[in-house]
């Protein structure tokens, strides 16, 4: 998901709309904006893309005020339906509050069960609602203390933006799994999942929030708090591999630069005698540039993408995903025919995409096809807010690289090593951040209470 917030600007809702537009790649199922005029919160939410949900001009007349927060959603916890749209907004004994969440809580079910046993009634199936209930029940007098009290009871990944009538509050979980940045625009404070949202609205990038940092913005300005005793910086390496936009700066580095470095590293680890390098667009492009550069091979646009098709993996049904590949990509025969081709993609999840792509390139006359993946084999599910499928759907959970090579019908297959990935994501520097790599290594930085459902390591 993607989150955005702005405080202290007369065009708050409009700017949130633009911010969400820039974050659309982080979720396409639903979106929403909640605005405050200083007295009341008002919201507009809907299923679908930002451009569809906010189509009519008068929507913004109904979202007046100097502060607003927004959300784009794809479901990792809770189903894909209208009642799970965010920001979630509620009225409770002490006023109104809205929240937008990126990430996934690993103990939401446990907390929810406890709350339900003591009388809470939930209106969504999303993990985020537990936070709202905890805040409403918390004993402390100040809102900030109530939020802190609540966040001490949940575990997992959260980059959160809250809005009340008079304040905007942004928090990153103590592990800093998901990105969240702070910016400024004409004296107003802005927060966004990725800095590309600041570029669009011409806000100045100030810095990223630290893991475990909470910032509070009101009419008197911005204050920073560190409510957690212990923090541990384990940002999601997959944001750099695939999820974030290449023109964003997250976890201290440009995504674009890191992706190219994944490609350099991949070329060093898995060189091959070939004529051209092609990328699986768009996600494979920067790594392919890096691979070609390091290997001294020409990079060609051998696959052309139809830009009116969304990110295939976010569409929830396997049947749609199947169609997706052909709808989305077309090989350029003139470029590929008779050539030994290196094909670069960022990841193999189920293997269905790669298999179709290899067949497509073979049918376009390629002599040899060498698939290179700019991340290690994805063998474990993510519980921190990236929608990887259950373990049994992950092809590398149950198949060797040789078997996957045969399944996708390539002539050779090479994945970036886990060590190489860490080297590249830190640009071979010594400021080694302990990036989360659990979907590759199985080493989860935040433990979860129980492995219950099939989704959890099934
Ligand atoms: P698959 O191997 O499942 O057919 O699809 C792999 C493709 O999906 C890659 O091109 C990659 O860009 C994209 N992808 C990236 N991240 C994810 C993810 O978290 N889940 C899924 N299913 N696909 C992803
Ligand atoms: Fe990111 Fe993978 Fe860790 Fe999930 S498990 S937070 S996708 S690195
Ligand atoms: Mg892709």
TrEMBL record:
Q: Give the E.C. number(s).
A: 2.4.2.14
The entry's function note states: Catalyzes the formation of phosphoribosylamine from phosphoribosylpyrophosphate (PRPP) and glutamine.
Recorded hits in NCBIfam families, A to Z, give: purF (TIGR01134)
GO process annotations (BP):
'de novo' IMP biosynthetic process; purine nucleobase biosynthetic process
Q: What is the protein's species of origin?
A: Malonomonas rubra DSM 5091
The positions annotated for binding [4Fe-4S] cluster are 236, 382, 436, 439
Give this protein's Gene Ontology molecular function annotations.
4 iron, 4 sulfur cluster binding; amidophosphoribosyltransferase activity; magnesium ion binding
State one Pfam family annotation. GATase_7
**Mind telling me what this protein is named?**
Amidophosphoribosyltransferase
The residues that the entry says bind Mg(2+) are 283, 345-346
């Amino acid at each position: 998901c993607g989150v955005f917030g702005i405080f202290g600007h007369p065009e708050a809702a409009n700017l949130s709309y633009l911010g969400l537009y820039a974050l659309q790649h982080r979720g396409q199922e639903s979106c929403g904006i909640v605005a405050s005029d200083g007295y009341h919160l008002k919201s507009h939410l809907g299923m679908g893309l930002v451009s569809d949900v906010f189509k009519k001009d008068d929507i913004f007349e109904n979202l007046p005020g100097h502060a607003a927060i927004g959300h784009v959603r794809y479901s990792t916890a809770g189903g894909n339906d209208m009642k799970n749209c965010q920001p979630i907004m509620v009225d409770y004994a002490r006023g109104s509050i809205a929240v937008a969440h990126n990430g996934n809580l690993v103990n939401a079910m446990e907390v929810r069960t406890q709350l339900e046993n003591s009388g809470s009634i939930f209106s969504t199936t999303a993990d985020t609602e537990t936070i709202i209930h905890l805040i409403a029940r918390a004993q402390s007098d100040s809102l900030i203390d109530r939020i802190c009290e609540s966040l001490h009871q949940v575990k997992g990944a959260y980059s959160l933006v809250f809005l009340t009538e008079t304040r905007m509050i942004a928090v990153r979980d103590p592990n800093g799994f998901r990105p969240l940045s702070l910016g400024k625009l004409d004296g107003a404070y802005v927060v966004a999942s990725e800095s590309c949202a600041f570029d669009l609205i011409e806000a100045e990038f100030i810095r990223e929030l630290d893991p475990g940092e909470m910032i509070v913005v009101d009419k008197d300005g911005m204050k920073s708090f560190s409510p957690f005793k212990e923090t541990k910086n384990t940002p999601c390496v997959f944001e750099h591999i695939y999820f974030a936009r290449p023109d964003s700066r997250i976890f201290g580095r440009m995504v674009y630069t890191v992706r190219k470095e994944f490609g350099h590293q991949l070329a060093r680890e898995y060189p091959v005698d070939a004529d051209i390098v092609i990328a699986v667009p768009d996600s494979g492009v920067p790594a392919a540039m890096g691979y070609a550069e390091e290997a001294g091979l020409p990079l060609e646009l051998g696959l052309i993408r139809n830009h009116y098709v969304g990110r295939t993996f976010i569409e929830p049904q396997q049947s749609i995903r199947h169609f997706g590949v052909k709808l989305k990509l077309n090989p350029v025969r003139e470029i590929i025919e008779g050539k030994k081709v290196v094909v670069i993609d960022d990841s193999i999840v189920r293997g269905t995409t790669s298999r179709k792509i290899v067949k497509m390139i073979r049918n376009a006359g390629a002599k040899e096809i060498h698939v290179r993946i700019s991340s290690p084999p994805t063998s474990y599910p993510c519980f921190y807010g990236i929608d990887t499928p259950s373990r049994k759907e992950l092809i590398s959970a149950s198949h060797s690289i040789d078997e996957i090579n045969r399944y996708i019908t390539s002539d050779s297959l090479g994945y970036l090593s886990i060590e190489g990935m860490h080297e590249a994501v830190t640009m071979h520097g010594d400021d080694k951040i302990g990036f989360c790599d659990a979907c590759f290594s199985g080493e989860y930085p935040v433990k979860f209470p129980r492995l219950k459902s099939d989704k959890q390591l099934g």
